[in-house]
Design goal:
The structure is a homodimer. Chain A is α/β, with parallel strands linked by helices. Chain A is 44% helix and 15% strand. In chain A, α9 links the parallel β7 and β8. The mean pLDDT of chain A is 96. Chains A, B: This is Histidinol dehydrogenase.
Chain lengths: 433, 433
């Protein structure tokens, strides 16, 4: 049974604190193994990448076959189901349209002292997208990671995807093409992260690496951070549903399971002001589990990490939501906008009874790469700004420097930084002052 | 002598690649010591913080005296020089005015399918600012770290600053007050980072920690990342000056030294198209060093990490600038805007002969916390968005879900995620389909 709490219960605060503090993920320490792979690829380039790929993916590659050719992508796309391709392109178009609205504006003005000030945004020069192989090869994830880079104007988007035993989901290649990926390599693991970060004879280095992966990939990303930028390290999926008793329990149960089915470490939580509805949802979860193909995973997640919290009143919800800071927040209530306005911490909010979280995983338009493990307290989902950087601009002439320079000289001297002071004062003709 | 390169030289590419690859910072491995401190503070709270402060700062504190009182801040401000305070407030006002222009706008629209979409920004709930003690206690750094948080609307800004042997720069407290810091604790080191991340009986936990520190502080920030957000880990300062022969060599030499004086690991590089001017700048550097109080540090930086690159033509500059991706880029040329437009990677650009970089350290307005070690290729200086997070919003009604839901069902099934498909299909009345 999932955890059951009630805010009326005297033990509620202790139980909720335990829920908040629970670690769902077992961290494998693979740092030493990953450091060896990174050093090897850095030193031996393609040869090392090919060696690891032979060992772990059972693929014999050469520098010439590392890259998936346009003809191979054509052939893969031709194998895809037409209806699925149409859905993929519908999703790509909607994701692109939403992300286009995130493009930042440059700033440029001259202030009252005559100082020209500004900030401008430029795209990152080259981005690497990691895509897991095997069962977790999700075309939607390719769209969500690559499209913001394309909208940002990144000229080079290099994707890596392992093909263990030669297996590759053709929809992943179709998604890469739809998202504007410019090159694809059939490699994975820490060796692929190293190739992207350091470059090899065949693979030019990138400036930033994004995308989900296993413990080795996550550790490799952490270790190359600094040499390149990385995105956040994503944890297991989470959904928090706030629902009143007027919902269909089968709908809400499906929503909880949509995240529980990702991984045994995923977490689904229901907050409701109606204890009888809570019981009905719990029963509906069991009913759905009887038919779902991923029932084993979903049930394990629900049993170990699921929770139902019964509230005195929905007005108690925002404070609890903010403490949980969920990746996904579904507000299946009569006035979702009013409730949303009172929430501060959530990666994405799904408003109303007809907005299941899964719509955001595929076609709504906003990104599905969102902060997990309570990090919505301080971070945001993947977006166009993650693939751009801002440069600030300052321009003084003799007159405006004369206006603001003396304060800089005073502060530099107060900090004991006389060369700082000198570089301003010498232009004010006060160097010898 | 600093490194001297010329693009006419056949060995140029190799020399420039060596300059790019050079590591200037010795990384101390203090991870194990820091992990012990973090675990101790997490388990024992104030008692552990007070114990480490006694040992390392030689200060006997109690939970009651951890926090610096308003009366103590008043007294410190009263001791500050009036002219310096005026300069500090001028700087604070200019920094605040620039950062106010970074406030993001919310997004809200309904698309052609009737889907309500949006994104809104909310401030981080509580921020911790680390301020080094001793000689590196810079009031300008307090302004630059705290002001963006205040402009973002962060309700709680907690500062920590160690006071070894009771020494504290009163201007640091004055800067904290000017920047809207809401509470100040006289602690530092890994124990202060732990107190901010985990909280103690006296210090409530924060959501994000920013600010510079020594190797222990940097390691502590890395280790608490995830529990809280952190800013980038700043490396040694850098300046890249692109100057033609029409500049006063003494001005340019002062600019190079303004960053070289920070730290022996700092780096100052000159790119010029005029070899005679390069010689004149080198001579002017030596002349300034004869009088500067921090000459030993500046000379060590200039000798070990400085470089002069003579170009055939200033048109060669942008490509080299982009590879160096400097923290600070000064363009002391006849048409700095044209050159700036051709540069992609730089933390901040200073335009023209009358804009020494140091003006940006204090009073120009943009932030002086900028990406170092070539990370301007993929990251930006500290800004208001670093203290906010974005939540995306999606709202469907039955009609708009019917419009976009089928594609989501198709993609979920293609990914083998039937509970995802179910949560949409059940609302479309197609669950049994």
């Amino acid at each position: 049974m999932p955890l059951r709490l009630s805010t009326r219960d005297p033990g509620f605060e202790a139980g909720f604190a335990t829920l908040l503090a629970a670690k769902r993920e077992v961290q494998e320490d693979v740092n030493a193994a990953v450091a060896t792979v990174l050093a090897d690829v850095r030193a031996h380039g393609d040869t090392a990448v090919i060696g690891y790929t032979r060992r772990w993916d059972r693929q014999d590659l050469t520098p010439e076959t590392l890259r998936i050719t346009a003809a191979e992508i054509d052939a893969a796309v031709a194998r895809c189901d037409a209806g699925t391709l149409a859905a993929l392109h519908e999703a790509a178009a909607r994701i692109e349209a939403f992300h286009r609205r995130q493009q930042p504006e440059a700033l440029s003005f001259t202030d009252a002292q005559g100082v020209r000030l500004g900030a401008r945004w430029t795209p990152v020069g080259a981005v690497g997208i990691y895509v897991p192989g095997g069962t977790a090869a999700y075309p939607s994830s390719v769209l969500m990671n690559a499209m913001p880079a394309r909208v940002a104007g990144v000229p080079r988007i290099a994707m890596v995807v392992p093909t263990p035993d030669g297996v590759l989901n053709p929809l992943v290649l179709a998604a890469a093409r739809a998202a504007g990926v410019t090159e694809i390599y059939r490699i994975g693991g820490a060796q692929a992260v190293a190739a992207l970060a350091y470059g090899t004879d065949t693979i030019a280095p990138v400036d930033k690496i994004v995308g989900p992966g296993n413990a080795y990939v996550a550790a490799a990303k952490r270790q190359v951070f600094g040499t390149v930028g990385i995105d956040m390290i994503a944890g297991p999926s989470e959904i928090l549903v706030v629902a009143d008793g007027a919902n269909d329990p089968a709908w809400i149960a499906a929503d909880l399971l949509s995240q529980a089915e990702h991984d045994e470490s995923s977490q689904a939580i229901l907050l409701t002001d109606d204890a009888a509805f809570a019981d009905a949802v719990a029963a509906a979860v069991e009913a759905h589990l009887a038919t779902l193909p991923r029932a084993r995973i979903a049930a394990a997640s629900w049993q170990a990490h699921g929770a139902i919290v019964v509230l005195r009143d929905l007005a108690e919800a925002p404070a609890l939501v903010d403490r949980l800071a969920p990746e996904h927040l579904e507000l299946a209530v009569a006035d979702p906008d009013a409730l949303a306005a009172r929430v501060r911490n959530a990666g994405a909010i799904f408003l109303g009874r007809h907005t299941p979280e899964a719509i955001g995983d595929y076609v709504a338009g906003p990104n599905h790469v969102l902060p997990t493990a309570r990090s919505a307290r301080f971070s945001s989902g993947l977006n166009v700004l993650d693939f751009m950087k801002r440069t600030t601009l300052v321009g003084c002439d003799a007159c405006s420097l004369a206006a603001i320079g003396p304060a800089a000289v005073t502060l530099a001297r107060a900090e004991g930084l006389e060369a700082h002071a000198l570089s301003v004062a010498i232009r004010l003709g006060r160097a010898a002052e």
